[in-house]
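Q: Please design a sequence for this.
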């Protein structure tokens, strides 16, 4: 938790030049490679470093030296991996880093590996900062993950084998392909795409598979393929807190509490294996007991899905995100629509018109389903849909702007969403919601990626004044925070317009780094530094 003294805030002089200088140094500070000792450390688990190689990949020569220099145990995975979930990470003798061939930028702090959705905003920043080799290398690392680990992973650690993250690969590929400096020629770019395209198709298929289907809506949901507590959880304190919260708020308990013994006998333990989690397989599961209760298997499924969504922790998708897997989410399906449009364009570039038509048809079906289930004409917003109740959410969430970024909203829908900016806009930028739950992905907190997607969507639909105003607010929040304590952070308080974040539900740390904030700040300034595009057709909204 970061507490900024009021005197320091008052004395701080926001200076974009200082922020720019910080970011310039931070790219080097945050760059890792799997033959670098700094990349092997995992602050989330208390084990000696292990590096896993794919079962069918020869030992790179550089790793022999790394083994001795870093005192790391280099092992091979027990089998060739072709899909997510094929390796149950609980069966590995120890958790470790997964080998990647190219250097990459990590978010910072305890996030010392290459993350799925963080990396999109990092790649945008690297390209804006003319570090194209590093940006392209990160995209190639994701292609390597698909080829050798079954898909784009949450991050390159073995305990993430069961889940992905918000699907931005198509847009990462497009960003690299659209930058003239990324390839020596157009032919070289096309040759690269020819190898990348089938891997992207394989990654996209994850989101069409049965586990990721949101009921019969034709839309997708987040869904981790594992069970029980996540392996990166160091102890059961978080889970005990969830139990106690649900006890105090019975109206929010959707069957998440299971009456159980603290030390069950073999018969009860066998029953809990399906009703809750496998006590024998997970010490965290065994310890996750409070006041006569354990958590249900459905809770653990939702908790894992929440982590795949990247919104960990929130109360928008149920208490502690526990119902995430029951929602056809606006954000996810907007990303998949954009992915399908990207694959359409890639197929055309490669001379595959039949495949391009397939992707266009898939995108059209998704857009129609989103209009049916996710567009709330009565609220003027895109809102998530609970497939278990057959009802839309009543809680406006900042992902309502994703359809603008994805280009699937009609002009009338875009204007309607834009006209409701006051639901989210605060002094420091856009907050995630109007629900002050105490969780970091709710009010009053704001994040670089969601602010950027909203700004870009508004700008693309011609609401230039709104886009520039919000860009200036968020960029200034980053500047003020850096002036106050010399750091760039993971998240910010949109109400106070600084990094004073006091979280009471879930993670309390405001991590220093920070990869996606660095990248988004650069993109916001690209927008702010260009010539104004003219007045919006309607008056700007200023809460």
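A: Design:
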């Amino acid at each position: 938790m970061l507490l900024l003294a009021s005197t320091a805030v008052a004395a701080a002089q926001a200076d974009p030049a200082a922020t720019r200088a910080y970011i310039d140094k931070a790219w080097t500070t945050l760059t890792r490679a799997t033959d670098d000792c700094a990349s092997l450390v995992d602050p989330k688990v208390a084990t000696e470093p292990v590096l896993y190689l794919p079962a069918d990949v020869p030992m790179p020569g550089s790793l022999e030296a790394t083994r001795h220099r870093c005192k790391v145990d280099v092992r091979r995975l027990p089998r060739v991996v072709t899909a997510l979930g094929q390796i149950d990470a609980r069966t590995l003798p120890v958790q470790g880093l997964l080998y990647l061939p190219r250097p990459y930028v990590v978010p910072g702090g305890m996030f010392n590996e290459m993350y799925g959705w963080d990396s999109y905003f990092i790649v945008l920043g690297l390209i804006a900062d003319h570090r194209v080799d590093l940006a392209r290398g990160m995209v190639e690392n994701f292609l390597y993950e698909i080829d050798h680990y079954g898909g784009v992973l949450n991050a390159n650690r073995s305990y993430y084998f069961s889940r992905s993250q918000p699907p931005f690969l198509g847009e990462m590929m497009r960003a690299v392909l659209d930058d003239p400096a990324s390839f020596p020629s157009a032919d070289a770019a096309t040759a690269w795409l020819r190898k990348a395209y089938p891997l992207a198709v394989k990654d996209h298929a994850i989101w069409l598979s049965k586990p990721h289907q949101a009921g019969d809506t034709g839309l997708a949901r987040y869904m981790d393929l594992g069970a029980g507590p996540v392996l990166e959880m160091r102890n059961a304190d978080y889970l005990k807190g969830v139990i106690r919260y649900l006890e105090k708020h019975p109206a929010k308990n959707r069957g998440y509490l299971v009456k159980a013994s603290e030390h069950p006998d073999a018969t009860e333990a066998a029953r809990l294996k399906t009703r809750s989690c496998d006590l024998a397989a997970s010490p965290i599961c065994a310890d996750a007991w409070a006041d006569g209760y354990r958590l249900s298997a459905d809770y653990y499924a939702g908790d894992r899905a929440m982590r795949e969504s990247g919104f960990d922790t929130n109360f928008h998708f149920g208490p502690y995100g526990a119902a995430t897997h029951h929602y056809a989410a606006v954000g996810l399906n907007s990303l998949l629509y954009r992915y399908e449009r990207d694959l359409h364009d890639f197929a055309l570039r490669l001379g595959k018109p039949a495949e391009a038509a397939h992707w266009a048809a898939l995108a059209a079906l998704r857009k129609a389903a989103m209009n049916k289930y996710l567009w709330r004409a009565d609220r003027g917003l895109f809102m998530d849909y609970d497939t278990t109740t057959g009802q839309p959410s009543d809680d406006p969430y900042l992902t309502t702007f994703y359809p603008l970024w994805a280009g699937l909203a009609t002009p009338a829908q875009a204007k309607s969403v834009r006209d409701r900016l006051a639901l989210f806009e605060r002094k420091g930028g856009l907050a995630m919601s109007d629900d002050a739950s105490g969780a970091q992905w709710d009010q009053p907190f704001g994040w670089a990626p969601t602010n950027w997607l909203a700004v870009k969507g508004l700008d693309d639909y011609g609401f230039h004044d709104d886009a520039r105003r919000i860009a200036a607010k968020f960029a200034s929040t980053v500047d003020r925070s850096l002036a106050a304590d010399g750091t760039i952070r993971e998240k910010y308080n949109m109400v106070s317009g600084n990094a004073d974040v006091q979280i009471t539900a879930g993670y309390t740390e405001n991590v220093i780094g920070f990869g996606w904030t660095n990248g988004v700040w650069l993109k916001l300034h690209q927008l702010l530094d260009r010539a104004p595009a003219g007045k919006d057709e309607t008056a700007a909204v200023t809460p």
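Q: Thanks. Anything notable?
A: The two ends are 28 Å apart (CA to CA). Confidence is low (pLDDT under 50) at residues 1-11, 538-543.
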